[in-house]
Specification:
Blueprint: H1 21-24, H2 37-40, H3 46-49, E1 69-77, E2 88-92, E3 118-122, E4 128-134, E5 139-140, E6 148-149, E7 152-158, E8 166-171, H4 182-185, H5 190-194, E9 199-201, E10 211-218
Parallel strand pairs: 1-10
Antiparallel strand pairs: 1-4, 2-3, 2-7, 5-6, 7-8, 9-10
The structure holds fe (ii) ion.
Amino acid sequence: MVEPRDPRTQSEGVVAGYAHTARRWPSQPLVVRPHDTGELSGPAKLERRLPPSKADLAGRGANRALGQLIHLRARVVDEDGAPVPGALVEIWHCNSAGKYLHPNDASDSPPDPNFHGNARLIAGDGGLVELRTIKPAAYAVPDTDGWWRPPHVHFSVWGRVWLSRLVTQMFFPGDPLNDHDAILNAVRDPEARARCIARLAPTTRGPANALVYEYQLVVRGRKAAPRMP
Ligand SMILES: [Fe+2]
C-alpha cells in the first residue's frame, strides 16, 4: 500500500512564505494500490551508473576548504530500524559562505575552490555512510522577505527497492534559525522535526580536529524522515 502522507510528519502541501511548496507535493490524494514489482524491485547496478566518490569534501593542507571541519555519520535504516547496507547516498551542501557549487546559485557569496560540494557514498554493512566535510553556512533565500535557511545538508537515498527512495535535509542542533525555517517547520509534528536534526557526538568517533554529527535516515514507515526538497 502507498503510505498516506501524514501532514504532521511530512511537509504540508502549502506553506505561507514558501511559494514552491505547492509545486513540490501532490495536490490530489494518493491512490492506494497493492505493492507489486514496480515498488518491490529496485534500481539495478546502481553503483555502475552512479559511481561513488571520495568521502571527503573538505580537502587537506593547502587545499583545505574554508570552514569548521565536521564529520557526518549518517545511518540508513528501514522502518524496523534494520540497517540498509548498499544504499546509495548522495550528499550536498553549500560552502562556509553559503554558496552552492551549482550554476543556479546566483548569490554573490564567494565560491571556495577547495570545497567539493557533493559526494556519493555507498552504505556499509551497518547502513552507515561517513563524510568528512566543513559545516555549511546559513544563506538568504532569494526573492523572499528575509527568509534565511539554517545550515543544513541535503541527502538523497537510493535503497534496494524503489520504496526506499528518500530526499531530505539534515539540520544542526541548537541553531536559532531552525525555529524559523519554512521548510523544516512545514513539518508540524515536533517529534518528526526533531528527527531531522543531527546529534553532536563525541569527537572520538571521527577524524582529528572535526566535530562529529550523527544522523539517522529512516527511509520509510511511520518514523520515516520527512521528505524535503
Ligand atoms: Fe539547501
